[in-house]
Input
Amino acid sequence: METKQTTWSISTHSPQETAAVAEALGRLLRGGEVLALIGDLGAGKTCFVQGLAVGLEIPEEAYVRSPTFSLIEQYEGRLPVYHLDLYRLSDADELEAIGWRDCLDGASVVAVEWADQLQGYLPSDYIAIRLRSKGPEEREIQISVCGKPPSWWQTWIER
Ligand code: ADP
Ligand code: MG
Output
């Protein structure tokens, strides 16, 4: 049955578990999704993107880590993928300079760490992924759809 549930959450107890959740999500993505990752330093945003990369079949050689200095990295998996880390973003001009608009091409998966920096620049439909540290190895992961839910959302919340 169709539900109106827009938020799904889980607690994980290891980086592997967080990556496994992300991998499962990555397998459902169809392209065009914007994933806004929000959480403090060490919350597990990069760990989550590394799991996504597996689900998106990004070759293992393309070692995925935070593009802390370049701000943006592009990968080819079964879909094109942009990975952004906006920790060091100085202003909106820089966002334009790195080609933020071009990422929103409707075909690529866009995963953004420190997406709180994107206020006013997010598209109307996106997926917010909040990670919270609850202890050395415990993380609460909350996934919410903002705007129109993607086609696979129902599958995800029923899994
Ligand atoms: P961020 O990108 O949010 O700054 P990282 O993914 O780089 O965070 O780092 C998360 C750190 O927390 C890693 O050192 C990882 O090993 C550790 N960690 C411990 N438990 C977990 C967990 N359940 N999920 C994700 N990371 C965890
Ligand atoms: Mg990171």
About this structure: Residues 16 and 47 are 8 Å apart (CA to CA). The mean pLDDT is 95.
